[in-house]
Amino acid sequence: MKLKPNHFKGPIQMKLKLAALATMMAVSAPSFALIEGATSGNGSLLLNFITPGATSTNGMSAAFDLGVNLNDVLAWNGIAGFTQTWSLTAANYGSAWSDLLGFSSNDNDADIQFNVIALDNTNKTTVNNGSRYLTTADVAKYPSLNNGNLSAFDQMDLYVKANNGLGTHPTEANGASTVMAGDLPLNSYFRGINGVQQGDNWLTKTSADTTKNLTTAQNFWFLETTLPGGSAQASKTAFGFDIDGDGLIEMDNNGAAVTGGFSEFSEWSVNMADGTITFATPVPEAETYAMMLAGLGLIGFLGRRCRNRAA
């Protein structure tokens, strides 16, 4: 068969278009590496460190993009024994971890503070679920917080945007950056936006302090706005595993037939020795598992019995 001159024109043009598209995607790839903030609808999980004794002219903060987003993290809640660990010395984080430790002169490393946050304020004006935030707060019960103050958490987005142009954030899929207190823009320094000497409390919009030193394991919370308006209380959901089945996440698993009375909260903890941070949800003790299985078995038995009677 004699081929016409334009026989391969369609396939060749398609390949050229695909090649051009691939080139464009490769060139624009760094834009996908940036931390996603409050206006993304699904903000990045962001780990922050702040050196001790910081003032407006002295101190260092560091921001680590943990590579997962708010919606992904919500799926972790309630899974017994769920654990996720990140190495802060990974290549994509550059020298941020060592720079942070070096700045504190090692003698005060344990006094460095940390928090973990994620932002979403895409539908702020709709009020109901329009503002969603993840935050560390080492409390057994999250303090009073109304919808108006929770929506104002979005001011922290200035910090996220300022750090996006620093460190390895522009070039790595999940980067890190360090900033000195006197650097510009000032919003890139964690306490520059959060308020020097005000406590790390989302620009004083909550009484809960998000940061604790590296020797403290912190509880984790999901906050979202609710109806009917700005003065109404926001929803505050603790991360953890309800060992005793009473519908609450508690520090002492009240009522559970287990020894030790350990916390039901999921916790964030930093290991300074190997430079890692871990999110972990408790695992019920053996006798608690046995009780849970027995309870599920009883429910199944009663269900079958009811179905048999109905038949």
Largest sheet, in brief, is: 11 strands, antiparallel
Instruction: Note the overall shape.
Output: globular
Q: Could you tell me the mean pLDDT? A: 82
Runs in which pLDDT lies below 50 for 5 or more consecutive residues are 1-32, 287-296
Rounded to the nearest angstrom, the radius of gyration is 24 Å
Please report the number of helical segments. 7
Report helical residue fraction: 10-25%
Structural class: alpha+beta
Work out the number of β strands.
11
Strand content: 15-25%
User: How do the helices and strands follow one another from N- to C-terminus?
Assistant: HEEHEHEEHHEHEEEEEH
Number of domains: 1
Distance between the termini: 71 Å
How would you characterize this protein structure?
With 311 residues, the protein is of the alpha+beta class. The longest helix is centred in the last third of the chain and has 25 residues, at 286-310. The termini are far apart. It has helices at residues 9-28, 70-74, 96-103, 147-151, 157-163, 190-194, 286-310; strands at 44-50, 60-69, 83-87, 113-120, 132-136, 176-180, 212-213, 218-224, 235-238, 267-271, 276-280. The protein has one domain.
Q: What are the key terms here?
A:
single chain, 311 residues, alpha+beta, 11-stranded antiparallel beta sheet, 24% helix, disordered N terminus
Short description:
The protein has 311 residues and is of the alpha+beta class.
